[in-house]
Amino acid sequence: MAASAVPAPSQVEAARKPWYRQLYFWVLTAIVTGVLTGWLWPSVGTAMEPVGTTFVAAIKMLITPIVFVTIVAGIGGVDSLGRVGRVGLKSLLYFQAGTLAALLIGLVAVNVFQPGAGVHAHPGDLQLAGEAGQYVKDGEGQSWWHFLTDLVPTSAVGAFAEGNILQVLFFSVLFGIALKAVGPVGGPLVDGIQRLSAVIFKILHYVMLAAPVGAFGAMAFTIGKYGFSTLGSLGRLIGLFYGTSAFFVIVVLGAVTAALRISIFRLLRYLREEFVLVLGTSSSESALPRLMQKLAGLGIRRDIVGLTVPTGYSFNLDGSSIYLSLAAVYIAQATDTPLSIGQQLGLLAVMILTSKGSGGITGAGFIALAATLSTVGTIPAAGIMLIFGIDKFMSECRALTNLAGNAVATLVVARWENALDIAHVNRVLHTGKPQPRPAQEQTAVGPSAQLPTKT
Fold first, then answer.
1. What ranges does the record give for the region Disordered, renumbered to this chain (predicted)?
2. How far apart are CA 112 and CA 326, in angstroms?
3. Which of 49, 90, 235, 385 has the fewest CB within 10 Å, making it most exposed?
4. What SS3 class is residue 389?
5. 183 Rama sector, left if φ>0, alpha if ψ -120 to 50, beta otherwise
């Protein structure tokens, strides 16, 4: 039987290559070229949209089968179904804590720096139109329990066809549990799924060869359509969002990894190719398959990776949470809408619910924001027009923060499960070469293996 449901990443060989042959170098070069193209020739940059969207579509094509084979093979390989439930529960508990921390930090930052003060926009002058109007309409139709009702797909095939990660996750867990429950009869099927995963990840390797082209097209379109002038008009809000997100990753997530005796900076460096890919495509989904490979390369058990990462893409959106609290209070400040501390805490409580289950949906940030404003009713929903023009430039930061948050969440759950070999993790982070542990070793590693190493 194959040793792991998540094949060893090809970066093991790539780590030995010169820097100018690494994927991140070419993606960075493509991003810079795309920015220059969109700035100097806006019409050409705008015409590059199909290049970027086609690459992201190719990645999304593989996400649902990767989630399925990883989760099913992971559950099929555990010694008890109770462990699966325990991992899922611990993941959800950590996600709630992370979401609350992100929302609170965004709330504090926007109140301290008040980027919307002095704008004095009149709500009656703000007209919803185009995509923004549609997002508000979708948001008004969202209920606080929508992430529960949307969990169950109308058909198993439909969930895969629509690329709904949350629904595929639900079906995959049920399938994996059933496969485990039938005992030896399901053994050959588990083996076949593990072999299938090797093929799917090989397809991913082929698709990733086009990553620089996709990043060029996405960045050229963004700059060509929206331009740098849009950045300047709301620079304070953009700067505050990026600064708050950086604080969250370095200080908050850094404190979490420090408690695990792991350096946040080495972890970020280890995931640099995934971050660069997200930066170029403005989509955290584009890096999901590679993130799962890299985390498996840290020796984390396959069932933990398979359950935590896909679930986190719907329930652990730290960057989106920071954005929600910043954007909502910014609109209140810009429209001179007074908010008491109690009203802001009520806003935060609603955001804990509206931020869930929207990962992977186009315009998810705006839909969640509109749903929040519509539910609370205190802040004019039309105020989202004030930030609609810069949302594309903020989506990169949301996606980058979400990626970092899910990487750290997986480490925390693995440690919580007593299945994180800190010495092995630090070795991998030091060398930058992913080294998945053999399947027979991916059990509780024991206290002695958790002693920190010098890094």
1. 431-455
2. 11
3. 235
4. coil
5. left
Torsion of CA 205, 208, 210, 214, to 10 degrees: 160
* DSSP labels, 217-286: HHHHHHHHHHTTHHHHHTHHHHHHHHHHHHHIIIIIIHHHHHHTT--HHHHHHHTHHHHHHHHHHT-GGG
DSSP 148-201: HHTSS-S-HHHHHHHT-HHHHHHHHHHHHHHHHHTGGGGHHHHHHHHHHHHHHH
State the angle between helix axes of 81-113 and 318-334 in degrees (0 to 180), rounded to the nearest 10.
30
Q: Tens digit of pLDDT for each residue in 277-323?
A: 888 877 777 788 889 889 999 999 888 998 898 888 878 889 889 99
The rounded distance, in Å, linking the Cα atoms of 440 and 421 is: 14
Q: What share of the chain is helix, strand, coil (3-state, %, to 5)?
A: 75, 0, 25
Query: For a pLDDT cut of 70, what percent of the chain falls above it?
Result: 79
Q: Delimit the domains of the chain by residue range.
A: 11-450
Q: At what angle do helices 341-354 and 318-334 cross, to 10 degrees?
A: 140
- What's the rounded mean pLDDT across residues 75-100? 83
d(CA 410, CA 401): 14
Q: Say whether pTM exceeds 0.85.
A: no
Q: What is the DSSP letter of 355?
A: T
| DSSP per position, 122-141 | -GGG----HHHHHHHHHHHT
Cβ atoms of 351 and 325 closer than 8 Å: yes
Measure the CA–CA gap between 388 and 366, rounded to whole angstroms. Answer: 8
Rounded to 5 degrees, φ, ψ at 301 are -55, 140
Backbone φ/ψ region at 300: left (φ over 0), alpha (ψ -120 to 50), beta = beta
CA 75 to chain centre: 23
- Cα–Cα distance for residue pair 326/311, rounded to 1 Å: 24
Its CATH architecture, for the domain 11-450, is Orthogonal Bundle (1.10)
With contact defined as beta carbons under 8 Å apart, do 365 and 391 qualify? yes
The CA dihedral of 225, 228, 230, 231, to the nearest 10 degrees, is 130
Question: What are the pLDDT digits (tens) for 317-343?
Answer: 898 899 989 988 888 888 888 888 888
